[in-house]
Amino acid sequence: MPRIAVDAMGGDCGPEVVIEGALEAAADGIDVVLYGGGIDARGLDLVETREVIAMDEKPADAVRAKPESSLVAANRAVGDGEADAIVSAGNTGAMLAAGLLHIRRLPGVMRPAIAVVIPARYGASVLIDAGANADARPEHLLQFAHMGAVFAAEVLERPRPVVRLLSIGEEPEKGNQLTLEAHELLAEDPALDFQGNTEARQLLRFAGDVIVCDGFTGNVALKLLEGTIAEVLDALREEVASTTRGKLGGLLIRHAARGMRARLDPETYGGAYLLGLRGLSVIAHGNSSAKAIANAVRLAARGVEHGVVDRLAHRVPDRVASARPAS
């Protein structure tokens, strides 16, 4: 069973919520070890740490200044082979910095990328990059496509993932210079089932198995989707509860409404993979509930069991060598 290192001190809701989620995942048989200080591990393995990286600290500075923090220690455990994956709801930038320092990039990987599952209406999609690289080059997007394809194949069980490029129009000539050049690289790669551009309005319907973009665009799209889903569901609930007729109607659609909420809830997957490292790193939302933490741990364990890192190591470098700029 995979051993998952959980940063108990990361996130906005406090270690009690993280521990509750870790316990829920451990009940499934997952080997969980907590990293933190001054906490009751409630029977789980605990590695005591002395420092905490706050959400508002500068990532690289914090990682260097606080080597004994829970976040850094958990990343170091993965890099040293003491754990198979890390889960943290803490500072995303610090997770990236600590991962690069202690877990290190896979050979041939230019930049790690955040891959997050989008709960689309007609099947989940992988959005990559969702925030690790605000600036990117076309060859980076090609590499993201291959990493996303491995994710889709191994975690979402899509044997031949359809790859689409997020742009401002479906036509190949639409987009900025980055998307135009990335489109050309993606279309020329025979190992990808690339089916052209897609627009953001298709993301919640189903735009493809893998949606590729730079981290700035991906993060804006992701947060817009999450905010829209939350606001629509909350508004619907308030509207139903505002009148007697609405309450009666709510009873009739309660089962369907619960199903829709469950399908669209970002907590269903709990977190996002930081792909391109020598070990698995799962980044959870800062405001993750215990349910989200449990699902993030399950996501990490599933990635280890499916050998996502090994598959990336065998596929990505070979496929992108020709796309690298001459030195």
Q: Looking across the biggest beta sheet, what order are the strands in?
A: 3-2-1-4-11-10-5-6-9-7-8
Quote the distance from N terminus to C terminus: 43 Å
Order of helices and strands: EHEEHHEHEEHEHEEHHEEHH
Question: Would you tell me the structural class of the helices and strands?
Answer: alpha/beta
From the alpha-carbon coordinates, what is the Rg to the nearest angstrom?
20 Å
CATH topology of the largest domain: Isopropylmalate Dehydrogenase
What would the average pLDDT be, to the nearest integer? 90
Report on the biggest sheet.
Answer: 11 strands, mixed
Give a count of the beta strands, DSSP E runs of length 2 or more: 11
Q: Which percent band covers the strand fraction? A: 15-25%
Uncertain segments are 321-327
Query: What percentage of residues falls in helices of 4 or more residues?
Result: 40-55%
Which quaternary structure do these chains form? single chain
Overall number of domains: 2
Which class of the largest domain in CATH terms? Alpha Beta
What is the topological layout?
Layout: E1 3-7, H1 15-26, E2 31-36, E3 45-48, H2 59-65, H3 70-79, E4 85-88, H4 92-103, E5 113-118, E6 125-128, H5 138-154, E7 162-166, H6 177-188, E8 193-198, E9 210-212, H7 215-241, H8 244-264, E10 271-275, E11 280-284, H9 290-305, H10 308-320
Parallel strand pairs: 1-2, 1-4, 2-3, 4-11, 6-9, 7-8, 7-9
Antiparallel strand pairs: 5-6, 5-10, 10-11
Helix pairs in contact: 1-9, 2-4, 3-4, 5-6, 5-10, 7-8
